Amino acid sequence: MKVAFVIYSNMTALDFIGVYDPVTRLKSMGFLPDLSWEICAYSETVSDSTGLKFLPTQIMQSLEEFDWVILPGGITPLVYALTQDVNFITWLKTAENCQLKASVCTGSLLLGAAGYLRGKQATSHPNAFKELAEFCAEVVDRRVVDEGNVITARGVTASIDLGLYLCEKVAGYEAKEKIRVQMDYQTEPNSDSSPLYA
After folding, report:
1. Is there a domain that residue 190 lies in?
2. Domain membership of residue 61 as a residue range
């Protein structure tokens, strides 16, 4: 299985790292030995909204080869502006045939601009609910919203919940739990007492 972690300038670092850490543990902890990934960008240089720099491993290459494509979010006005960038959105559309597209926070605006949220429920950071409504059938105030081939998560810290959710989806509950414990993540977001998922 091959995963594309998409990065872009002005993203929120934790949106990216929070999902990257648990998903890549699927390989390092032996649950999916054949898992591979690339850090994909449309530009050669990428930094988050505070100037922290990231190094992509693939630049402007098609996303069609990947099984999963995962996008972080960022500050709402900056990400909303990126939805108007025809070249960037055309690049995201190369992921059309990928099995799963997932996003954290305002990354859902980018999925929406690429057309992946048509007729679907989705979520984002609450500050972006109004903008998200332009791109999906219904904005849902849940931590993670699973619409089959598209999964969206709420703001920033929900990136960890999304990462663990994806681990369970592909490797099962026990694998997810071992990863969660190894990460020392104290909350089990999918417990019966906390119905966070749509």
Report:
1. no
2. 2-183
Q: What share of the chain in percent tops pLDDT 90?
A: 93
What are 43-74's pLDDT values in tens digits?
A: 999 999 899 999 999 999 999 999 999 999 99
- Counted domains in the chain: 1
SS3 171: helix
Q: Is the pLDDT of residue 101 over 60?
A: yes
The residues with which 139 forms a beta bridge, in sequence order, are: 122
At residue 179, what are phi and psi to the nearest 5 degrees?
A: -65, -45
* CATH number of domain containing 163: 3.40.50.880
Determine the straight-line distance between the first and last CA of the chain, rounded to whole angstroms. 25
Residue 72 located in a structural domain: yes
pTM value is: 0.92
What gap in Å lies between CA 44 and CA 106, rounded to an integer?
A: 22
Look-up: residue for tokens 């709402």?
Answer: 76
Run of H or E including 112: helix 107-113
Closest to 18 (Cα-Cα) out of 144, 128, 113, 114: 144
- Rounded to 10 degrees, the C-alpha dihedral 4/89/135/64 comes to -40
Single-letter amino acid, residue 194: S
CB 167 within 8 A of CB 179: yes
Cβ 68 vs Cβ 35: under 8 Å: no
